[in-house]
Batch of 3 targets.
Target 1
Amino acid sequence: MDPITFYNRYTDSIETEQVYGESFLKWAYGNPLGRIALHSFVKRPFFSAWYGRRMDHPQTADKVAPFIQQYKMDAEEFQDSPDTYPHFNAFFYRKLKPSARPIADTPVVFPADGRHLGFENAEDVQGVFLKGQKWNLRALINDDALYNSFKGGSLVLSRLCPVDYHRFHFPCAGTPSETRLINGPLFSVSPIALRQNLAYMWENKRTCTVLETEQLGKVLLLEIGATCVGSILQTYQAGHAIQKGDEKGYFAFGGSSTITIFEPNKVQLANDLLEHSSQCQELYARMGDSMATLK
């Protein structure tokens, strides 16, 4: 399999991703025996729940320092000292110092750290991870009334790796609805898996929130579960006004994704995001950085 590369907005260069658990992913999604295991138990919620509980064990605190060193993480960003986390999961969904993620002046910012793809028309997304694959927006949203509101609008997929900051935030100001849970299996959302089947994005367990805004109308916010994601936890209060950059929730252990969808003709996505996405090249940017302006 080809290595996973992305464009780094901050270094202005193409970089190769260090994939956590790469050998297992290649076996599960590329080997016939691995695919049997994948469909027998790896994709099932009990497997991820079991793995999540393992990451809550106090002995896993010993994994924190080697993980930081291996992936060259900046511990100065952390709100708490690395040696204070009671287990690996607490480190995984750590908070950061507010100064570590300044919120840009633009009307819409990235909701999470990660590798992002942006498309002006969510109904015309294809060939993202493999030629011939196309998004199924209706299946993703799983609500015909909402689908009719957002079809033809812009979409941003933000993919979080296990090494990333795993709290997700509101990309713009507004008033959020209650979160709707859409149940499903828990396939990996790594490109290694999505090259096999993009439909994992709209088959997996996911959560959906409608954000009512003054300038942008409705904005649809989804969080996508994945293998070894113990939980998608919401920390906001429905019906209470929020500001751009406020925390919405966090993922427990595992890499995952968020998806932001706008109604048609509401936003202009950032030029570098559109440029690299048109080449099926993800763009790395941090939560709070500029994602879009008003049309």
Note: The first strand starts at residue 5 and ends at 8.
Target 2
Amino acid sequence: MIEMKVAGIALDAGSRNPVILLRDVADRRALPIFISHDQARSIVGALENETAIRPMTHDLFANLIDEWDMVLRRVIIHSLKDNTFYAVMTLAQGEKTKELDARPSDAISIALRLNAPIWVMEEVIADASIPVDREADEAEKQAFHNFLSKISPSDFAQRGKSFSND
């Protein structure tokens, strides 16, 4: 799993629908997830530490977790099927832990309110992320090609012998 942070909300240029952007902590990959306008408002409110006059749904859920002495341990975006992301929220109360199925946008909105970490499975990152730092990606790719160009099959045979002698 890869820990992600909310980089912000953007509007898709073509559809004008909001997109939440998650970024890995190394700022190398971004994961865009389309969300509704209501979800976008809720997430922006959490990012800007806004307090509504009356609790909105995500505030209510966060308040419920606090009042019942529970902890949101983490949000995990675990799969992508038919262009739909799936997530779970891991909640704990004392020694008991439960996972609740949740839409990623709801889970992220609540995680922001409770300062809980957001994790994404590597397969989801591989399938749906976009590069943020193309120069670093290209440098890493070039270094790997340089490594491969300097290695020969006999190097593997040598390494295999040293491993078998251990």
Note: The helical segments are 37-47, 57-67, 104-114, 122-128, 134-149, 153-164.
Target 3
Amino acid sequence: MEVKVSWNGPSGMSFRAETGTGHMVAMDGAPEAGGHNLAPRPMEMVLVGTGGCTAYDVVLILKRGREDVRGCDVTLQAERAESDPKVFTKINFHFVVTGRNLKPAAVERAVTLSHDKYCSASIMLAKTAEITHTVEIVEV
């Protein structure tokens, strides 16, 4: 896996990233740091990737378990250290899983398997952050 990150130049603190699969992503800094607030911050992108990783796992595990899953949203709320390096210290994942006749135990199992076994991003972040999760099931 490879990505290339390039600074957009001296007019600010914006960057562009190209993934190994050819996708472009923009990042920008806060105005007080010279950015223009035109794109997500790099640490927000870490959370975005982690949320995508775990949501992917949860949906895949539920589908493989023949659960009638129709949607999966995950909201990550994170706290960071006060001083440098400002690593994540606490992250809560709130899952809202929608479907028909979803078994609560199956949904909880999918979330736990993601966090404990499959989602490399959340497992990596657990080295510095306390990871918690909540699950809400919505019948459709």
Note: The two ends are 38 Å apart (CA to CA).
